[in-house]
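Changelog-adjacent note: as of this version, every example in the card shows the full chain rather than a window. The one below runs 151 residues end to end.
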Amino acid sequence: MTTNISESMNAVLVKVRELPITTFVNEIRLLCQKWFYERRNKAKDCTSKMSTDMEKKLERRRDQAQVIDIQYADQYNFDVIDGDRNFCVDMALWTCGCRKFQLDQLPCEHILVVVRRTMYEVYKLAKNVVFQQQARCGPCIHMPRHVTVCP
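Full-length structure tokens:
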């Protein structure tokens, strides 16, 4: 798999490259139509609140959170003990000492321990994720906050 879109397209279109330009452009159009159709059907079948990738990532973090312990500092601050390391979790400011939560806006394992013990709603913490009901016209995917989905 490549990270360059032109390399990806060249690899897919290697067989039709020698065709006349109108046929070549038509092949590109058909390929894009096929991709959009497949992704639209995949999005239609998405039943989770978040995308499959984000749900898997959250589930891995939940599994990691099973062995982590916390100590209450006050109503919003918690000391999370993860093996030989301690992390400060502040639920009022929505921060964690590991900084995963601040970087990808998906709750880290330390936040998830606090969520499990204090009954916070985990999906309310996932601020940067487009949920299925919000993505009516597009696939259920992880998108940056500044991207608008559908009006």
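Structural remarks: The chain has a mean pLDDT of 78.
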